[in-house]
Every structure is written in C-alpha cells, then in structure tokens.
Design goal:
The chain has a 5-stranded antiparallel sheet with strand order 6-5-4-1-7, with no helix packed on it. The chain is about 0% helix and about 40% strand. The protein is mostly beta strands and about 100 residues long. β4 and β5 form a beta hairpin.
Length: about 100
C-alpha cells in the first residue's frame, strides 16, 4: 500500500528519525520529534500552497509511554505503512 492511498485515522510509522526543521513555533531546530519506527496516526492530509501536487500528512506519533504527541507535518517519504518491529509490554521486541 502506498502512503498516498492512506486516509485520516490510518496508522503509519516513521521511516526515519523525524526532526524539527526549524518550522515548528517555539521548537528547537534539530530536535528529534519522532524516532525511526515510531507508530503514529494520520490526523489530517493537505498540501503546501506552493506545491499543490505534493501531499503533506499531519501525524501524531506515540512516545515511549504510548502517549500521542502533537501533530507533525510529514512528507510521504517520511512515513511507511510497515513497522520495523513491534515492542511488546515489558520491552520485548519482535522482529
């Protein structure tokens, strides 16, 4: 399945560490916002006015405590539909 085919409410994963590029108000440029493999949910899909052919996805990623964070704007290449691994309760990882 392609990221572009997903809809609001669908689960995605960070394809790599997602960092603040300096565009988040009161954020710290370079700060890691979502670790590679973090699970998130799409909350909105839109586009940037200057690039209407390119979708931007607002995603809320879970932190280590499984709490959803603030929405982060992501490009399709920042996301994947497949988890790299699953973490079970107690910290056990399945590959």
């Amino acid at each position: 399945m392609r990221i572009e085919d997903l809809d609001i409410g669908d689960v995605v994963f960070a394809a790599h560490a997602i960092t603040d590029d300096g565009s988040i108000p009161n954020g710290l440029e370079g700060e890691v916002l979502a670790d590679a493999g973090a699970r998130g949910v799409i909350t909105m899909i839109g586009h940037v006015e200057e690039q209407p052919e390119r979708s931007v996805f607002l995603v809320r990623f879970e932190d280590k405590n499984m709490t959803l964070g603030s929405p982060i704007g992501c490009w399709a290449e920042d996301l994947t539909v497949e988890s790299r691994h699953e973490t079970m309760p107690g910290g056990f990882e399945l590959s």
